[in-house]
Amino acid sequence: MLIQPIPVSPWQANCYVVLADEKATQCVIVDPGITAAGPVARYVEERGVTPVALLATHGHLDHVGDAHLLAARWKIPLHIAAADRHLLERPGDGLGPQGTALMRQLTGTDTLPPVADVRDLTGDIELAGLYVSPFAAPGHTPGSTLLDVTSADTRVVFTGDVIFAGTIGRTDLPGGSMTEMRRSLRNIVERFPADVVLLPGHGRPTTLAEELDTNSYLR
User: What residue spans define the domains of the chain?
Assistant: First the structure.
C-alpha cells in the first residue's frame, strides 16, 4: 500500500491519498479537509492516478471542507457516517459557539455547496484494490468512524480525531461525549491487534501497542 499524507487546513489535519500499491492506477482520498483541493489534485496528477472515492472519518471542516470540490472534479462519491452528514453543508454546527463566525472568516459564507453523491459508511466496501471496513467510534462526533483499510500486503487504520499519538480527540464540541469516547476506546482495544498501524487525523502515525503503553486514555 502507498499512502501519501497531505497536511491541510489551518489545523494541519492529515488528508491521505491511498493506493493499493506502487503500480496502482486508482486511489481513494481520506479526509479531504478545507484547503485540500489544490495539493491533492497536484499529487494525483503528478502520480497519474484516478481517484474513485472520498472517505471521511467524521464531518468536521478540517476533514471534509473540500469534499464538494474534489467530488465534483472527478465525479466521485463521498462515504461518511449518516450521523455526521449534516456537517457537510453546515460545518459550523460542529465547531462550537463561534462556528458560524469561523466559517465566514474561512469561506465567506455559513454553508458549503452540497456533495452530489453522498453514501453512508454502513458496511465493508472495495475501492481501488483496497478493502475498507468502517468501525463506528463516536465520542469526538456522533459519526466518528475508524477506517480499517487493507491491501494485499498491508493493513492500516485511519483513526480520524478519535486517537492521536499520546492522546485522543476533543469531546467538548457539539455532539461530543466523553462517555461515548471511553466506550469507543474500549471497543478499539478489543477489536484491533496491538501491532496495527494507526494513522491519525492530526500528527504522526503510531500503533495500538504504542498507545497502550503510553496513552493514558487507553489504559
Answer: 2-218
pLDDT tens digits, 73-108: 999 999 999 999 999 999 989 988 888 788 888 888
CA distance 55 to 29: 6
- Count the helices and strands in the chain (H runs, E runs): 6, 14
Task: Name the DSSP class of 60.
Answer: -
CA distances from 164 to 37, 44, 70, 201, 208 (A): 24, 26, 26, 7, 10
The DSSP code sequence of 131-175 is EEEEEE-TTSSTT-EEEEEE-SS-EEEEEETSEETTEE----STT
CB 193 within 8 A of CB 211: no
Position 34 scores a pLDDT of 95
Yes or no: domain 2-218 corresponds to CATH 3.60.15.10? yes
For residue 117, what is the DSSP state? -
Q: How many CB atoms lie within 10 A of CB 122?
A: 11
What is d(CA 67, CA 79) in angstroms, rounded to the nearest whole number? 10
Dihedral over Cα of 129, 86, 201, 75: its sign: positive
Distance CA 157, CA 179 (A): 22
